[in-house]
Structures are given as C-alpha cells and as structure tokens.
Amino acid sequence: MNDGVREIEVKYRVAEPDAIVVALRQLGVELSAPVRQDDQAYAPAGWAYGQSKTGVSFARLRTQDGRHLFCVKRPLDNELACQEYETEVAEREPMHAAILAMGFQPTVRIVKTRRTGRLGGMSFCLDEIRHLGTFLEIELLVDDNRSAVEVQARLDDFAQSLGVELARSTETYDSLIRAALTAPV
After folding, report:
1. Count of alpha carbons within 13 Å of 44, Cβ hemisphere only?
2. Rounded to an integer, what distance in angstroms lies between the CA atom of residue 179 and that of residue 80?
3. Example GO molecular function term (predicted)?
4. Of 19, 38, 50, 58, which sees the most CB atoms within 10 A?
5. 149 in a domain, yes or no?
6. Which H or E run contains 8?
7. Which CATH number is 171's domain given?
8. 1 pLDDT tier (thresholds 50, 70, 90)
9. Is residue 86 part of a domain?
10. CA atoms of 71 and 7, how far apart (whole Å)
11. Distances from the Cα of 143 to the Cαs of 8, 19, 80, 132, 138, in angstroms?
12. Cα dihedral across residues 154, 158, 161, 166: positive or negative
C-alpha cells in the first residue's frame, strides 16, 4: 500500500457463521475456500497492552500456503483504521530475527482459518480464530481524507443491514487473544 491509502475496517463476533455466509451470498458475495493463516504479532519494545496503539507501528509475520508475508501497520484514527505496508519474504525465521533486530517484540500468535470475498470496494473476511471463535471483518481501502469514524459508521450500517446477529468489536485480534488468554479462569 502507498502512503496515501488507509485500510479502514469494522469487526464483529459472529454467533452464526452459516447465517453470515447466506446473507453475503444473497448479495452476490461468494466467499473463497478456507485458508489457514499463522500470524505472529509484534509490538515495539517498550509498548504494552493497555497503552494506546494510535500512531504506533506494529509488525506481523504471516504464513499462508507456504508463503510468508511481512506487514507493518500504524493505526491512525483508531486501532481499525491503519496505514499498512506488506511484502512477501522468502523465509520466516530470518525475517523473525530481522523484526527482533528492528526493535519489535513478539506479542501473540494468531492462528485462523479465513474465507474472503468482495462486493464493490468492500472486502470481507470470515475468520475462525483459535481461542476466540468466529469473526467477520469488513474492510474498505480509502485514498482520500474521509474520516475513518464516518467510514466505519457506513460499514457498520451495511453490516447491520445483513440481518444477522453481530457483536461489534473495536479491538484488533492480538488484543482480543491476549485478553482471552490472560483472563482469570
């Protein structure tokens, strides 16, 4: 992604994944076959959960279908409105070492099965996440000065129009997993 493009998304916990698939299909969205993604999340040394993520760069190393993708995201307006840079790398372990050398520290591992689809400019990700359950992400790439909060409100209106029970989350998967794994039993 170039400097002028932002990824803005909304995220929902899904009680009935099959109902989402049907609702999206009725709109002409066919979700892809499931793929497994194994993500290691990283935060800058010195940053800790509970601190703001806005304006802070975070890294991710993803393995999917034998490919390794390195990504840096910097939340701008809120955690789900980011400037993002992503590139494929040849090997996971040397990239992990390079990320550590850049001053990042590993936070949590996010393992999920993802199905994707598109409608107009919107991207959909239906994710079954280990330790969390099923989530729907709706993303829009914008290259102008639109307010992220306004774009998220429009995306939320669309999500609510699907007529399926959804519980909105304003946190990223790494924060949700960390909270789930550290919650008292």
Report:
1. 13
2. 17
3. adenylate cyclase activity
4. 58
5. yes
6. strand 6-14
7. 2.40.320.10
8. very low
9. yes
10. 13
11. 11, 32, 16, 32, 17
12. negative
Q: Is residue 105 domain-resident?
A: yes
Judge whether 1 lies within some domain.
Answer: no
Query: CB of 73 within 8 A of CB of 9?
Result: no
What confidence tier does 173 reach under pLDDT thresholds 50, 70, 90? very high
Whether 164 and 23 have beta carbons less than 8 Å apart is answered as: yes
Which region, left, alpha or beta, applies to residue 46 given φ > 0 means left and ψ of -120 to 50 means alpha? left
Domain assignment of residue 33, given as a range? 6-182
Tokens 């129009």 correspond to what residue?
A: 161
**What pLDDT was estimated at residue 182?**
87
Instruction: Compute the average pLDDT of residues 59-70.
Output: 98
Report the domain count for the chain. Answer: 1
Per the CB < 8 A criterion, the answer to whether 31 and 24 are in contact is yes
Per-residue pLDDT tens digits for 152-172:
999 999 999 999 999 999 999
- Listed in sequence order, the residues at least 6 apart from 184 whose beta carbon sits closer than 8 Å to its beta carbon are none
